[in-house]
Amino acid sequence: MRATTKTSDDAPAGSKRLSRATSGVLGLTSARSSASRSDKTTRPGRLDNELFIRLVSAEPLAGLAAIDSIREGYSASILKSASRFFDVPDARIQAIAQVPASTASRLEKKQARIDPAATERIYRIGSVTRMAIDVFEDQAAAIAWMRQPNRALGEAAPLELMDTEPGAVAVRQVLNAIATGGAA
Fold first, then answer.
1. What is the rounded distance in angstroms from the CA atom of residue 135 to the CA atom of residue 155?
2. Which of 16, 30, 55, 91 is most buried by its number of CB atoms within 10 A?
3. What span, in angstroms and rounded, lies between the C-alpha atoms of 84 and 52?
4. CB 98 within 8 A of CB 104
5. Which residue has the higher pLDDT, 78 or 45?
6. In a domain? residue 4
7. Tally of domains in the chain
8. Closest listed residue to residue 126, CA positions, set 32, 21, 37, 27
9. Distance (Å, rounded) from C-alpha 172 to C-alpha 158?
10. Is residue 10 part of a domain?
């Protein structure tokens, strides 16, 4: 599927990326646009519950597509979707994404997007979770591992370290050690 978009004359050719198209591939567009495309028999909120699942299970965006998707921001409902995916309280994901509860609630009611910094944290959670699923070859085992304190990470749960890139690097190193037979 190839999407096209018009750019303004003052922008260099190719400088505007297809951020709506790339986030749409993951189903991370706003709930309003997703709902308008869904059939009338779909339960309200069902698409929202699947946003994070799509982020984890879809072919990962990389390079400029990932950058554009992050800059555009994900639908605020992805915060609740991630909470449901990990079976943790909404406040835990909001804290990792650094989105106050009141802001998350307001953005979700407006069917708006979270800012790029919070989006990048959610993207990071998704990419590391995808790696854990690949390493453990089982989604439930990967989710449990992400939620449990880990000795190699100073007794922190891998999920708790997703608020920073250095934390994610440490988690990836542990996953690489597990994948190659090292102790972790």
1. 20
2. 55
3. 9
4. no
5. 78
6. no
7. 1
8. 27
9. 9
10. no
| Residue 127 lies in domain | 19-179
> 146 pLDDT band (50/70/90 cuts)?
very high
The pLDDT assigned to 184 comes to 56
Predicted confidence (pLDDT) per residue in 17-71, tens digit: 333 333 443 444 433 333 333 333 334 444 466 889 888 887 777 789 889 999 9
Statement: the pTM of the whole predicted model exceeds 0.90 = no
Q: Which residues contact 156 (CB under 8 A, 6 or more apart)?
A: 149, 150
> How long, in residues, is the chain?
184
Distance in angstroms (rounded) separating the CA atoms of residues 44 and 95: 26
Number of Cα atoms under 13 Å in the Cβ half of residue 12: 1
